[in-house]
Write a structure and sequence with these properties.
binds adenosine monophosphate, Rossmann fold, seven-stranded parallel β-sheet, 41% helix, globular, 14 strands
Length: 373
């Protein structure tokens, strides 16, 4: 086994990792860490949540920071507040035993005055959503002139959220920066264009297939039922899970809203996240789920992006996702950190062919589950 130390990670960071139970580098970490520690340059990595990508760029980034220089040395761009906070939290934990490294996360949809105040403290790393970053730079609250590393995390999601112009603007400001590291779960045309416009032609490329980067043991199951039976079947499944936590995914916010009402009426400890909620409502739902007051979270794909809740026992596809990427992304929520997890799809008989297609495409095998009578 190759260790983090052998990859060149400093012993104080290794100590922090070890305390988090992270002992063995994942595939992307094995590939990216030595590369980024040795001069780095530009990197394009195709990898999704659950592969350990945050540590793959976070450890080299932390190691590059000179904590004595009280200037912003690294910028991490990401699509959502939730992901930004997760990244900042991970960096904080990794660096528990290093000299103090200060990270600030800033994002839209929250009060700017508090962020302005927070930015008056010494800051080494900024984690930001693109729009809010530009706003803060224009107000003179963030000085990017000493930045040496720029990370784009979930670049595809930033584009699909409509941040293209903002990203172009920021990357134009960052032309002199040599170390630009882009992470994306998918590589649509818009991403390739962005790479062409803003990264060097000889950028290193890494591709990590599948969500199984981090000791994943996911059992894929499907159950055939009629649409009107779904909520009952779900209740039976939830009953079998007891206090185990999991996420139930729907395609639309309407389904989320209706399902939550049904589950709530059945006394399930449930909350939801979807696009119509205010940021503070989303935060409240996430807090309740994280502190285990709620056992079930019902979510749309977009709203669930970037949330990192560990050791989920299961995910349920209440409605099949609109893309294979979403299926992988959803399933990546369970079976983390060596624990096994269930990814259960509730499908109509017509949708079974989608299951067979996923089986082939993602190389997973499904078990058919039958309804308890
Ligand atoms: P990420 O892909 O960065 O969203 O990470 C997914 C989860 O895996 C996070 O909760 C990390 O703390 C955890 N993790 C990261 N690297 C490893 C590793 N090498 N071994 C076990 N867990 C890890």
């Amino acid at each position: 086994m190759t260790t983090f130390t052998q990859l060149g990670v400093h012993k104080n960071l290794v100590k922090g990792l070890s305390e988090m139970g992270i002992k063995e580098p994942s595939e992307i970490q094995l590939e990216a860490i030595p590369l980024l520690l040795n001069g780095g340059g530009n990197l394009v990595a195709k990898a999704q949540t659950g592969t350990g990508k945050t540590a793959a760029y976070g450890l080299p980034l932390l190691q590059k920071i000179d904590s004595k220089r009280k200037v912003i040395q690294a910028l991490i761009l990401c699509p959502t507040r939730e992901l930004g906070q997760q990244i900042a939290k991970q960096l904080f934990k990794y660096s528990k035993y290093t000299d103090p490294i200060y990270t600030e996360s800033v994002y839209g949809g929250a009060r700017i005055d508090e962020q302005l105040k927070a930015l008056q403290r010494p800051t080494h790393i900024i984690v930001a959503t693109p729009g809010r970053l530009i706003d803060l730079v224009k107000r003179g609250a963030i000085d990017l002139s000493a930045v040496e590393t720029v990370v784009l995390d979930e670049a595809d999601e930033m584009l699909s959220m409509g941040f293209k112009d903002e990203l172009d603007e920021i990357l134009n400001m960052m032309r002199r920066v040599d170390d630009k590291w882009l992470f994306s779960a998918t590589m649509p045309q818009g991403i390739n264009q962005m790479i062409k416009n803003h990264l060097s032609a000889d950028a290193h490329k890494i591709e990590i297939k599948g969500p199984n980067g981090v000791n994943k043991k996911v059992e894929h199951q499907f159950l055939i039922c009629a649409p009107e039976e779904k909520s009952l079947v779900l209740l039976q499944f939830l009953a079998s899970q007891g206090t185990n936590q999991g996420i139930v995914f729907c395609r639309t916010k309407e389904t989320v809203k209706n399902l939550v009402k049904d589950l709530y009426a059945k006394k399930i400890k449930v909350d939801c996240i979807h696009g119509d909620l205010l940021q503070k409502e989303r935060d409240k739902a996430m807090r309740g789920f994280q502190n285990k007051t709620k056992t079930v979270l019902v979510a749309t794909d977009i709203a669930a992006r970037g949330i990192d809740v560990q050791n989920l026992a299961y995910v349920v596809h209440y409605e099949m996702p609109s893309s294979d990427e979403y299926y992988t992304h959803r399933s990546g929520r369970t079976g983390r950190g060596g624990q096994s997890g269930v990814s259960l799809s509730l499908v109509t008989s017509k949708e079974v062919k989608q299951i067979r297609a996923l089986e082939k495409k993602l190389g997973v095998s499904y078990t058919q589950i039958r309804r308890a009578k």
